[in-house]
Write a structure and sequence with these properties.
The structure is a homodimer.
Chain A (H helix, E strand, L loop, with lengths): L7 H4 L6 H14 L8 E2 L2 H8 L3 H13 L3 E4 L3 E4 L6 E4 L2 E2 L2 H7 L4 E11 L3 H7 L7 E10 L2 E11 L13 H7 L6 E10 L2 H7 L6 E10 L5 E10 L3 E9 L9
Parallel strand pairs in A: 4-12
Antiparallel strand pairs in A: 1-3, 2-3, 6-7, 7-8, 8-11, 9-10, 10-11
Helix pairs in contact in A: 2-4, 3-4
The structure holds a DNA duplex.
DNA sequence: TAGTGGTCTAGACCACCAA
DNA sequence: TGGTGGTCTAGACCACTAC
């Protein structure tokens, strides 16, 4: 049954480190469906005894799988196969509403506020929002959840001339802006990948170092004035951004 | 001078694990410019002696910084502050050429072929390319470099009806297709984040587990026929994808 | 209270790199 | 050849969870 942890496989290992062998064995077992999502692995000490490896080595093998999102560890409780995460697809060309997106998918959208306040602007905020050191910025920070699964962290900065009191914002920042006639109509985004910090990983309930999408967005009024500067972190395992590309004018026919 | 590793800071530590303290101290020193890119840190054994920590603990602190891309370790050589990586910005709305993009930036584009051949199609390839089990796919795998810095891994799959012999492809797949009158004019992309596997990390010369952008692209002929199915991995620390968003029709003014 | 994961240690050997 | 990072061990204590 549990040939997975048979000592024989580790006494005369093939090439490569022992922890990688164990890591791969577990990973393959999961992929093959031999370990269902939510099912538990033996305690670390038991895996060590079964395989004949030290607990440190077992931990290193398990850590690799935790970081890549295949396993979840809970202190005092145990090690479990990670539940399957449903990937959400999001169009990149439309400035849409998180709540509406979720409603369209039949999911309950919710926000948890982490911070709201007015501060002196950071240099980057001065640059992007066009502020001086004497101006102030309203900062809004929250976690976005769908069906109670945290999907993203949003950190928005707006000139206090545009949003004097961040406490008046309810579920929707754009709704608040719209009431003041300051709804953005256009935005520019930059997308990159990053390893989640300990803090962000905790907020998104994934392992430290897991991959996330970092998205910076600057949105504009019809007049061209900047409205908001938002830096978001999306869970890499739960989000797909979809974009459509058109061919560029390319007489020579070179290529990507 | 090297108060960075002063034992005093670790004998009576504040809250939290010792390795995190060390990790943060080094990270802050780098951010403050006190450790220039390319400069070396003391050997692990020396850091352990200086701080009064065990080598295992020092390694754990260093590993965190290696994984997040702040440090680089070379076996037999030492530990160094990572060189600054220039971020490249790439428009998401245009199907452009890697070589041309790089030329526009004054960089030398180069490809290293990893594999080229004709195979039986994988299930996913059958789905996307519309093949049967009797058809064949041409697979092309290469690393893209700019000024000798590896930026991306591209894995393309095409029906062998479209590309019978993958060996005829030169620097540009699209140029080869264009010669046959099969140049795509439209594509759909999906972007997500992932932790790099050991193999991909090696190819891109970054740490295992570093964050990367995974991009799947399906491109089409004017007729709507699928031309290629490409799965790429981009370095998260070197690439920014830029997209412009237009407001969606939203009478109620909800929001992101 | 018993069991789990989280941290930490001291010491060992190996593989690789540079002189 | 000497020094570096990479792997591995046996054992200890702590913090948290579940009962």
């Amino acid at each position: 049954m549990d040939a997975l942890f048979a000592a024989a496989a580790f006494t005369a290992p093939g090439p490569g480190p022992l922890y990688l062998h164990l890591s791969r064995r577990i990973s393959e077992r999961i992929a093959a469906g031999g370990l269902a999502p939510g099912s538990s692995l033996p305690p670390e000490r038991e895996m060590a005894a079964l395989t004949g490896l030290s607990r440190v080595t077992v931990r290193k093998a398990v850590q690799a799988l935790v970081q890549s999102g295949q396993l979840v560890q809970r202190r005092g409780s145990g090690t479990f196969v990670a539940p399957k995460v449903e990937r959400l697809e999001q169009a990149l060309s439309l400035l849409t509403s998180f709540s509406e997106d979720m409603a369209r998918r039949g999911k309950a959208a919710r926000s948890v506020w982490l911070a709201r306040g007015v501060h002196a602007p950071a240099p980057e905020e001065m640059m992007v929002l066009g502020l001086t050191a004497q101006d102030h910025v309203a900062r809004l920070e929250r976690v976005r959840l769908a069906d109670e699964v945290p999907l993203a962290i949003e950190r928005a900065a707006l000139s206090s001339a545009i949003l004097p009191d961040p406490m008046v914002v309810g579920a929707s920042l754009y709704a608040t802006l719209a009431e003041r006639g300051l709804r953005p109509v256009r935005a520019v985004q930059r997308i990159s990948a990053t390893n989640l910090t300990s803090r962000d990983a905790g907020l998104l309930e994934v392992a430290v170092g897991a991959a996330g999408l970092r998205i910076e967005r600057v949105s504009y009024l019809p007049s061209g004035r900047v409205v908001e500067f938002t830096r978001s972190i999306y869970r890499g395992d739960a989000y797909d951004f979809a974009a459509e590309l058109q061919i560029a004018a390319e007489p020579q026919g070179k290529r990507t």
